[in-house]
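Could someone model DQA with this protein?
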Amino acid sequence: MANALIMVLNGPNLNLLGAREPEVYGTGTLDDLETLCAETAEGLGIGIEFRQSNLEGELISWIHEARGRAAGLVINPAAYSHTSIAIMDALAALDIPVIEVHLSNIHKRESFRHHSYVSGAADGVICGLGFAGYRLALIALSDILEEDQ
Ligand code: DQA
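Reply:
Sure, complex below.
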């Protein structure tokens, strides 16, 4: 769908990308990730809004904002994945495709990371592929939106 708007939301501590546990999350910064997403979107002919918040309520407000505005949503809820029924509920109320992304492979890490509430409301989940996961999520959403036309 040409010119479709995709929201790309990032949860807590992802503002520290590049400095935070680089052996887990890599050395690229959040700005680098935004650039990759913007370039990918441009190539796909879609628009993105890329945001990060350390606050659960702000992420929920942005998910509400996506209603009626965005055609799809990519979200890395970070640690809220493992705790937030409120984010899951906000996503469940959306009628646009949602892809959950994690930079690291959460299934290879501590057991408390193995369960994501958010996955229960996502159409697809990508983890363990670093920044490429966001690129792949945007490509998948673009495909889904084309198919829905
Ligand atoms: C993360 C994985 C989460 O378990 C963790 O709390 C994060 C980042 C990831 O992108 O790999 O903050 O979502």
